Amino acid sequence: MRFSVVSVPFILFPGLGVLANPLPIAEFIPSGPVLARSTSNTGSPGGQGAGSSQTLGSKWIVPAGYEVLIPVAKPIPSQLLKRADQIQSVFQPKTSVKLEYNGVSRPDRPAPTAKVDVTVDEKHPILELVHVRPLVEHVEVFEKGPNLIGMVFNSQDMLKIALKAWDWVNNDQNDYFTLIVMSADPKNSDIIRRLPYKIDKVNQNGLKVTLTATEIPWTTIGDLDIRIGATHPEPNTARPPTASNISKRLIDLDDTWPLNLAAGEPNNQFNLIGVQAELSKNGPVGTVQVKCVDCYSGGTFEVGAHFHYGLIKGLTEANVAFRTRNISASVGLEVNAAITERKKWRHQLIGADPAGMVLFGMVNFGPSIALDVVKEISIAGKFSVTAKMKMMLPDDEIYLDFLSPKNSHGANWLPKTEWEATINEASVELKGVAGMVANAGVTAQVFGHGVKSGLNLWIPRLEYGGKVGYSENLCPASGNTTARAVEPKPRYGSLPKIVSFPNATVTEEPTKVHAFGFTASAQAGVTMEITALEGTGALSFLQIGGVELLNKMFTLVSICKAKVI
Fold this sequence. Notes:
signal, DUF7029, DUF7223, 30 strands
């Protein structure tokens, strides 16, 4: 049985340093939509290349197969450049800019995006070169020297406007403004990067102005608010977020990144494990077969993230939101065994290695997804059991706050469940867990501060136990034949169920018999936990594991049938 695995679509990874003197490169002004290109050895656009990593200009390392997000150029519309005051505003450095980055759309995902809001001190304002470009005749980016940007104007009037906006930096050696420049990487012209440069000298010669430009790190220019997957900043409040409003504040439903959970098909069988155990002094004896008779899943996780880095306070926001979309799962496991110890089987339906994306000099962000079928049993004797369960989750959010883990929380799900269990064996006692577990991982690095996390979501989780055979007090509560089904509370939604326990077969006569019968119980629901939070840099205090965010298990059935002999 083969499954179609959908690769996880995206990750952001940072630059690892800068050069004081970048190599001569030509200005890049896109004329249309900007597309990301692969960083693979093949150079195929938008691909996930293999091979070794690349060290690009400014000593930035791009891991093998990672896609570089391309800056979106947004020149000022020509209709807004007709009046003198409008033109003056274009040349005047600002206290804030909004930057956008795009990737390539693929059949399995939309184009990923990143948005960065930059806010700077008014003493050192900021300007985008792409806005100035339409108002000058010619631009030279590092053509005349590694630290020189030249502009040729077509009139004295335009030249005077530019000088009035810029030449104040010549007054004092500590005066400067920041110029954002888009250019091709000197070592790979397919890679377009957007970098900040300190402009601390302006020289004029006729209609030409030459700016002295020095590349500087993003972290030195001001406050940076970075949103991945079209997320929105947290409001300035001490109150923790709630599931009802996360979608409004973190996830933009028109622009999200889905992690696909679709795997398998209904009614198809495949073996998870089949073992003829060897005889050993300390090991198990017998045979074990685990078969998936109805294992499949559907739906998506949508991922968004928000990071904020302040010039003074450093990293002040680092959170990720996963939103579930139409998630459903079915687990049908058939187990036949003759063994004497606890066993656990795990079969991976989806295991997507993260494909990567690079946002130069800012953020590493790498969500990953894995989907496993899990079967865990503890038995004594021989048994045959089939456990089936289907669960549908309403759309909701999971929120991870890396700086304040106590604010992390799970969704407020009201799952709908269908289940069926069949146990048929004698002289057996067993306890088991069956289900499908999605592990959503996050790897993030923001200007050298890193975090790794794992989130386990059981969709669904079925816990059951049973005993068939002879006992002196098989049903001690009643002392005789009883049958009881405990309904879950109404808030868990509709829970149609079928329970079947065929007649037991006896393999040996006990020496003393008071009762023969069957006891069984089952619980079902959805559980979620943070398996690990590990941080480096400013997040090094994060060393957390096993934090339960959600546990909604409810009793499906509790039965005891006995016949006094």
